[in-house]
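look at this one:
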Amino acid sequence: MVTTSVTAVGVPPSHGVGAPKVRSTADIDRMGALMRLWQARQIGCTTALVLCLVAGLLACSRAPADPLTHWRSALQHQSEAPATWLALGDSITEGQGASTRHNRWIDLTAKGLRAGSTGGDGYVPGWYAVYGPDSTWRASAARAGSVTDESSGSLGLRTALLGAPASQSYALAGTSADVYYTSPGGVLAYAVDGGPASTMDSPEAGSTAHRRHVEFPNRGLHTLTVVAVSGTVSLSGVFAFNGDERSGVHLFDGAHSGYTTGQFVAAQPDLDPVVSLVQPDLVTIELGVNDYLKGDATPEHVKANLNELVVDLRQQLKNKSPSIVLVLPYDIGPVSNGSVRAWADYASAIRSLGAELSLGVLDMSSIGTATPGGYWSQDGLHPSDAGQRQMAQRALAFLSLGS
């Protein structure tokens, strides 16, 4: 056997001083093979490590942000400051089909989201656009004089226009209330439980939305009366508190029965000032059903209108960056509206927009298809009290901290 003196490359020399060890060619071949295997393993491990790191970085960079991050933070700290929810929508959000205002899905959801606080009646507009026989409740306890329901200038575009000396009264249970109003050409005052009237400040020049806080003498049921002292004033609504002035979950109902996405887009100049005044942490948008029912807007138009609403909200609330959620109610089912597009097409367009704009999508389609009886009221379209509870359960699961 031929022998050769070799010092292996890449292998640490042996300890001590002396001549290289004499190895056989078979030893050399074996060592070469082991060396190549060792080097291959080192390269493989390094490559695998780099690939893992790159994959991890890509996964982190591509992971979608939670669209409810802002809302969850506000909800978590509701004992320190209010978590404010603005609910925009049509009759489904306004509560058509519910036997009382407190049985609406938005009210039931807000109640479930509150931590250790009962909360007051929340926002009550100048008037409601709901109707009988299922929903006969009203915003005001009493009216006197010239009071006109006007679709402008307030959340849900439900302003009560008061011409002096007209008045509108609210029956509110709680500790205080905020009055939302504008006075384009008149003076507004308020009185509690029939007491003396106090004049409200006129909005500053250029302001189209104003708010005045009113303290009640004690916790309990009170009558708050808003009076037009002179000229014409616009009463947007009131927000009633029950010890939760600086905490809890504050729900602002900004819905209007029968409205389409196009009507909300057209109303943006009226909505923007009061939305900026409210400064919500969460905005839910439940719109598109009336576009489908009326057959005057395609799914593509609905998507474009909702996109415009979201862009406007983000601009108006750019210093707040609220969570924005699109709400898909139950399956509306087929209707005779002259359109060849199914409700599923509209629902798909809404889901698509949610993905494109990184919005939350509250999908309640699992409730089923609207039909008379059970979860739906007599008209077979709007949720009954049982249906309102079904919607609230899904909304609560989606919007709560544990979701």
The chain has ten helices and 14 strands. The CA atoms of residues 371 and 380 lie 4 Å apart. Confidence is low (pLDDT under 50) at residues 1-30, 43-63.
